[in-house]
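Study both lines:
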Amino acid sequence: MTTASDPSYPAHWEADVVLRDGGTARIRPITTEDAGRLVSFYEQVSDESKYYRFFAPYPRLSDRDVHRFTHHDYVDRVGLAATIGGEFIGTVRFDRIGPDGRPASAPADEAEVAFLVQDAHQGRGVASALLEHIGAVARERGIRRFAAEVLPANTKMIKVFTDAGYQQKRSFEDGSVHLTLDLEPTAESLAVQRAREQRAEARSVQRLLAPGSVAVIGVSRSGSGVGAATLRNLRDGGFHGHLYAVNEARAPGMEGDLLDGVRAYRTVADIGAPVDLAVIAVPAGRVPDAVAACGEHGVQGLVVLSAGYGESGPAGLARQRELVRQVRSYGMRLIGPNAFGVINTAADVELNASLAPAPATARGRIGLFTQSGAIGIALLSGLLRRGEGLSSFVSAGNRADVSGNDILQYWYEDEATDVALMYLETLGNPRKFTRLARRTAALKPLVVALGGRHTPAGHVVTGTRLPEATVSELMRQAGVIQVDTVTELVDVGRLLAGQPLPAGPRVAILGNSESLGVLTYDACLTEGLRPAPPLDLTTAATPEDFRAALTAALASDDCDAVVVTAIPWVGERALADDLAEALRQAVAEVPGKPVAVVHVELGELVEALSAARAIQPPPAPAPAGAPRDRAPSPPRAPAPGGRIPAYPAAERAVKALAEAVRHAQWRRANADAGHVPEYEDIDESGAAAQLTALLAGVPEGAALTLDEPEARELLARYGTRVLPTLPAPSADAAVRAARILGYPVALKTTAPHLRHRADLGGVRLDLTTEAELRRSYEEVTEALGKPAELLPVVQTMAPRGVDTVVRSVVDTAAGAVLSFGLAGVPSELLGDTAHRLVPVTDRDAAGLIRSLRAAPLLFGWRGSDPVDTPALEELLLRLSRLVDDHPEVSGISLEPVVVATEGLSVLSATVRVAHPPARTDLGPRTLPSY
């Protein structure tokens, strides 16, 4: 008998998943304790669905059936259930079979699979999610194929199998469709899985941001407190749906009376109508009761403003985990806890379920996500102050459930969002984040300010072990525009939201101040742009002079962007409105190039350029929480010429423009992302077997550094040859080693304190005779110590070339990272090392080599012969394949790799292996565990 508390129960198969409609379900193994749930579930299934499952009328399950479907060995017989609120909504099981179709045990690698989904939940993607998870379980248990018998009329189930992306065979036998699925993941099955993931997660966020009805739980009668403030913001912001207040202190019989102009009730259950979103603002101790009431009422999602969770210590973290478990058990999603709230400015929604007072922001094209409420306040204030609008805003607080990855999924297909801004303290699932970021950035710019880079002791945010510059480079590789401050986040976002991407780095500068023009020119050079000499219009320039100059600059083929500088006029009336109109006219006349303005003490110009006065004010709120039965308000379009961003400092404007230039370059370069090449001589299965044997005695959490023969063997399986070395504990042994390897040879010390320190005299090269070798051996041991301390070796002499270093490491925050640099001073002292995320494509490998500041040394600097960079690129690609194929490889260091004019030589290799951590970006779809 197996229960959830038995040691044999596979708890790691439990998972929360997002379904097609945005709701959630929990998938878990079926146990002997589920007999009652199974019977209840089966009673709610229609006769037609039962017929499709059993190929005959089957009105009820017998006791024998219940026993068979709840007793599993989790090896040859496995059953999984999808549950909501603890009750079954779908089941799947497999039974291992032999070639004759009868029950079998391992090593038989085929199993018969069957599904049953409650009719009320069909069409939600339950069967597809169950197939992903039962397929992963089967592969874990050594099953490679699923066989299924389906009636021809059961088109829904046939579609579940055929749409999964697995290689399959289909035949028609004895009145049924016989399907065979190969469970080995394919590029198509992975693409199908990720497409379903994207649609489901985007839909789950949409349900939170576009509800038809909202209840605020925890509204005080006095009008004070977080709940009352949120209710007022919803009401004053003009929310289009039904709005309710919940106050447990209300006297019985007062249900439906008005509280602050909104219908108020004692509990959610008293509302008597559907509630899509609930905002919870009660003390943490009362949140579980509120969540339970929402779950029983069928609420789809929650925003929990309450504090006292993970941010408050271990007890709060435990309370937070229980909150997520409870929320997901009802099929809901959660923003928070400790959240600031959400905003959606869509014309047919106008949701301000946040602590930002109305008007929170105008309608615009920027999506904003923050983990910190304080940062969210600062960003909203900064955008509003500059007249910039938002499409949506999410402040996720402790990010216990809905994360930045979910919001990226939503923004990817949200037509109202053109630019995505994110303040993140952690990357959550880093591999998934970089995958989603790369895909999103190809369509719309993604700007990220990453906090937690220098995590103080005791802080709840876990930092990365990688240097800050490395993290920044990896983010840029994924197309992310990473900035250092929230001010830069707003600056860059405003430029990208209002202006087109530049075609190149050439910048024209014009204005009425020569000094300000020179400052802008210097800032452009600092940022790597190519500015033309500033055009000084003199302080007597009129708005018409600005218009004519800007029109000419925009029409010129010699520039890709324009920076306009402006200082106040002396002794004349303010011309801010006239100048703003002149600039907009020029942009409207010659569109297609970005324009930014640098001003000094011209606050009125900022307002005028933002076109804020072209925005219509929000309509009056609907009375008594009723939905507004009117047509959506018209789009709030800026004045002709668009919004031109203005900045109070040249450095800020140029920084924003430079980020736009670099992002445009990334898009052009990544139009063809390249591919991961296949190499016929790679022995993937041999490497897997070797790693399994090596880790057989290594405990979980420990790492093993391979000795030289083992490392050489593993690398050779992926086509990377390490030059052989032989130990030389004495001069005679060194001579014997040289005879075996053949002259010329190198004599090297390998003691840890002398490795890669040729400057200390522990390396002697080009030894062509026995006499030279003996003399060098004597000199090294006399100068540095005894052979037992030095651990000398003899190695075949490699052709002369450029010494480089190639490394790979698995970082907790970024995943697997491949690094390349020139050995010695460039990488160790100057930090001139480049990085790419694994897997590396052929374009990545080429870019990795060329991105070094010292890269000219590889390409014939000062008349030297260029080295064999194609061979170097191949080495990088092979190493990337090894690390990607085998997550057990936790670290590799090849140092030095001598790259000659023809070919290269790997002189030394260090390889570390460990049991791999769970990969959350592979396998079936699942929400982060709590």
